[in-house]
Write a structure and sequence with these properties.
Elements: H1 2-24, H2 32-43, H3 61-65, H4 68-76, H5 100-111, E1 139-142, E2 146-148, E3 155-164, E4 169-177, E5 184-193, E6 206-208, H6 214-220, E7 232-240, E8 256-258, E9 261-271, E10 278-280, E11 283-289, E12 298-303, E13 315-316, E14 321-329, E15 334-343, E16 347-355, E17 361-367, E18 378-386, E19 391-399, E20 415-416, E21 433-441
Antiparallel strand pairs: 1-11, 2-10, 3-6, 3-9, 4-8, 4-11, 5-7, 5-9, 12-21, 13-20, 14-19, 15-18, 15-21, 16-17, 16-19
Bound molecules: heme C.
The site of heme C has 21 residues, from α4.
Length: about 450
């Protein structure tokens, strides 16, 4: 009677350990090998590894125990792992947060002088440089020799990555893999498909981001079709932020046709300050599909440069805190997959929700303490249905006082979107209020699609 034997044994073990627990009448002391390492390896090491975006490793007992005090502090304060979205408001895939129990385990472990446990049983995660979160790509495109100078200044570039292929292909997913992990802070990458005759390979590879004018940039970088028209574009086709996961929707959802000739444009490629001269050759991983996308995805951009007006206009006077809203009525049933709130340095809080025609509120996202550094693309666990006639509302607060430690000016100056130049400025010291919504037209049953399943 083999199958019976095992559950009985298991039951005995559970009973015995329960009895011993009650007898001792205290919580077991967490050890590194049994309790702490699993938390650190899944929630911290993906950034805190040798080639990771964080400044030091958190993998071995030694790495973690020597910083235990600081780790106990930053986890209790919810400063690490960085995840600005409020979990009491809405939920997303891959939430990089610690549960109350995990935080408590770290506190107990630290208070009890960081016991090791049995280190010999521990398996360490293997983080290789250029590790992808989506697996082996079908095509790898490499940026060539982007310079990071040793002047210790932030750098913003627009960089193009042209390519040529023998045939057009359906693309299912894209992932940006940074070269210089420690310095790559942000990339917003658009895809461009050229009409065949144009030659995207001449002209400038790179431009400083100061100039905000799209058409001019595209012309200077030779990114227009040969007849001078703007090429077919997929906005925000590939984005990057330290610690972000590549987005891959379930099969059949999303994707587009990558033409024989085209280019990726890393718009707003932000490198942090460096004291060393470095060369970056970041990569774009491309994942193809044999099938045309059955459920194409679309994008709505609200606010700055987008389809909905900001009220009052985004001009924040010095020494003031101001609230701005933006509203958009939706005329068809849609299923929202991913959202991306965007503001710059004096952003303080951000909230978005949909008011349904029946009076209900669908909570989309709330970021009570805006963190410029961590602007994720947040994908829901299941598509969020927004029925036609709903109004999507953004509410954002900007703090242009000296109490805001991120205020770029002292004394404070007027900060605005600077729409005067044919489009908003991308300069970090100007402001933006933007909400990018990736959605598909609603179909019955969308609510039960599990977006974590590729
Ligand atoms: C998304 C990437 C990412 C994840 C995940 C992450 N960190 Fe960090 N961590 C950073 C970066 C980057 C810094 C450097 C400071 C900064 O840029 O904010 C940092 C800094 C720190 C610091 C130093 C804080 C200071 O003020 O100097 C500690 C301690 C730390 N992290 C602990 C952790 C722990 C513990 C976890 C997991 C529970 C974790 N981190 C998860 C990216 C990450």
């Amino acid at each position: 009677m083999k199958p019976l034997k095992y559950p009985i044994q298991k039951l005995l073990v559970v009973l015995l350990s329960l009895i011993s627990l009650i007898a001792c009448n205290r919580k077991p002391i967490p050890t590194f090998s049994a309790d702490i390492a699993p938390i650190i390896h899944s929630k911290c090491s993906p950034c805190h590894h040798k080639n990771g975006t964080a400044p030091f490793e958190l993998i071995s007992y030694n790495d973690v125990s020597k910083r235990a005090k600081m780790i106990a502090f930053v986890t209790a304060k919810h400063y690490m792992p960085p995840w600005p979205a409020d979990q009491n408001y809405s939920h997303f895939l891959n939430e990089r947060v610690l549960s109350d129990f995990e935080i408590e385990q770290i506190q107990n472990w630290f208070k009890n002088k960081c016991p090791q446990g049995d280190l010999s049983v521990l398996k360490y995660p293997d983080f290789k440089q250029n590790a992808s979160t989506l697996g082996k790509p079908d095509l790898v495109l490499s940026f060539q020799n982007i310079e990071i100078l040793n002047d210790n200044k932030d750098r913003f570039y627009v960089v193009k990555l042209p390519y040529e292929m023998k045939q057009e292909r359906y693309v299912r997913a894209l992932e940006f893999v940074p070269g210089q992990y420690q310095y790559a802070h942000h990339v917003n990458g658009h895809y461009l498909r050229f009409s065949d005759e144009s030659n995207p390979f001449l002209g400038r590879m790179k431009t400083d981001i100061e100039s905000p004018n799209y058409n001019k940039e595209f012309m200077e970088m030779n990114l227009l079709n040969s007849d001078g028209s703007l090429p077919f574009r997929v906005h925000s086709a590939v984005n990057y932020l330290p610690g972000a996961y590549g987005i891959q929707y379930p099969k059949g959802i999303g994707g587009f046709v990558m033409g024989k000739k085209g280019a990726f444009v890393a718009n707003d490629f932000h490198f942090g300050p460096s004291r060393k001269s470095l060369i970056d050759s970041s990569k774009i991983y491309v994942y193809f599909s044999d099938q045309a996308p059955q459920r194409p995805t679309y994008e709505i951009m609200m606010g700055t440069n987008g389809v909905s007006e900001i009220i009052p206009p985004l001009v924040v006077q010095p020494n003031t805190i101001s609230k701005h809203v933006s509203k958009l009525t939706i005329y068809n049933d849609i299923s929202i997959l991913t959202v991306n709130p965007h503001m710059h340095l004096i952003g303080k809080s951000f909230k978005a929700y949909a008011l349904k025609p029946n009076g209900d509120t669908l909570k989309l996202i709330s970021i009570p303490n805006w963190q410029f550094r961590w602007q994720y693309f947040y994908t829901y666990q299941t598509p969020q249905k927004v029925p036609k006639g709903s109004t999507i509302v953004l509410e954002a607060i900007f703090d242009n006082t000296l109490k805001n430690p991120n205020n770029p000016f002292n004394p404070p100056k007027q900060i605005s979107e600077r729409l005067d130049n044919g489009g908003a400025s991308m300069r970090t010291t100007d402001e933006m209020l933007q909400f990018i919504i990736t959605y598909m037209p609603y179909q019955k049953g969308d609510e039960s699609i599990d977006l974590s399943k590729p």
